[in-house]
Amino acid sequence: MYPQLCFAPEVLQVRPWRDEILDRLGFDPRSSYVEDYWLGVLGPSTVWLLRRFAAGFDYSPEGFELDLAETARSLGLGDRSGRHSPFVRSVNRTIQFGLARLSGPDELSVRRRLPPLNHGHLKRLSPSLRARHAAWQEAHQRRGDRAEAEATVEAAAR
Question: 146 and 90, same structural domain?
Fold first, then answer.
């Protein structure tokens, strides 16, 4: 188990968690993939928090200070800062699902992009969402196969 936030400091330093592969191939927290599929796994408050982080990185790519009470209130989560407050639970869910990690007592490293759902995450979805995700995966795979085939043909033509 990863270390989680036990109390909320007034300000949290948010830094990017760099990952070459996810930064290139992952999903922006504001994407339809995240809304369609990650939302059912993480819950709305955690998805909104990830979107807030993404917006912060748009303005400050190397990181920023996040006023926790203000952010919690703006997300409709109140401004309590105890271990079981809705806001602290949302922060800890980002850690639990490998989307963030504590990198200091008041510093959080956050992935800029999210991976596709894994098998364990898919089990959390409703049957209809799992079926929709399977169709999405199949279509995504076909597009990838076509792109790979086109690149191979193009390289052979040179």
Answer: no
Amino acid identity of 142?
R
Angle, alpha carbons 119-122-128 (nearest 5°): 140
Residues 90 and 148 in one domain: no
Q: What totals of helices (H) and strands (E) does the chain contain, helices first?
A: 8, 4
- Tell me the whole-structure pTM to 2 decimals: 0.83
Q: What is the C-alpha to C-alpha distance for residues 114 and 29, in angstroms, rounded to an integer?
A: 7
Residue 124 in contact with residue 37, Cβ under 8 Å? no
Which pLDDT tens digit goes with each residue over 88-147? 889 889 999 999 999 888 899 999 999 999 999 999 899 999 999 999 888 888 776 555
Share of the chain above pLDDT 70, in %: 81
97 shares a domain with 151: no
Find, among 126, 112, 108, the residue nearest to 41 by Cα. 126
The answer to the question of residue 39 being in a domain is yes
CA 89 to chain centre: 15
